[in-house]
Amino acid sequence: MTSRRVHIVGCHRSGTTLMMELMWHCFAFSGRVPHEQSLFKPIPANETLFLSKKPPDTTRIKEVFLRDADLYVIALLRDPRAVITSQHPSKPDVYFSSYRRWSRYHQAIEEMRGHPRYLVVSYEALIESPDKIQQQVAETFPFLQRTADFSSYPQGTQISPGAEESLGSVRPIDQASINRWQSHLPRIKGQLRQYPQMSAALIKHGYETDRQWEQQLEQVTPLHQTYKEIPPHFLKRWESRFRYWLKRRAYLRQRNLA
After folding, report:
1. What is the architecture, at CATH level 2, of domain 4-174+234-254?
2. pTM for this model (two decimals)
3. Which of 64, 85, 139, 235 could form a disulfide with 184 if both were Cys (CB 3.0 to 4.6 A apart)?
């Protein structure tokens, strides 16, 4: 039996959970993961169209994606200022992602942009025009059967406890989240000092037209945190690369692609 999979990736706090719930609510799938699960865990038996998501897979799936014609990916991109100031409800006293991580994930997504099975979605566009993005999804993946409009979310849907925790609550799509980073200027200034290349990236990727936005940081005291800011030791990075090399080999064997 042929089993297709739609897998959602993107930097942490880029809207992957919202996209997962929108896809489940508005298209027909035979099954899904409860909240997050790596691509490298096999699809359950008898599933014909499976939905999953895992942000860390963003930088790890290129090889298997290119070889698996039944794997389809949606990648979320979001203004790095919003990503680095987003706080997960499970750790409300820390910021969950750094600009360093956003940059690494963004590069991995841009490398795949344009592939017919890899759809890059702007979080801001999703929030501002959800039905337009849904149409883009439907046109890119024509095998999907539409059951509701993105704009109707969350009417009549039930989301998993993990998704509800990540989203903070079950609520309609809210455009206010786009500029919420402006309430975290100390964090922005701290990250900008640590990663001054962020300003050029904002202009390059269309989030700003110039550097005038930095004026609002002039009287702000920068905030620094150590949580997830320090790159892992090279031995840990080597171990992780080897572990995922094994996982890729196992995935390809399981899918008869080795």
Report:
1. 3-Layer(aba) Sandwich (3.40)
2. 0.92
3. 85
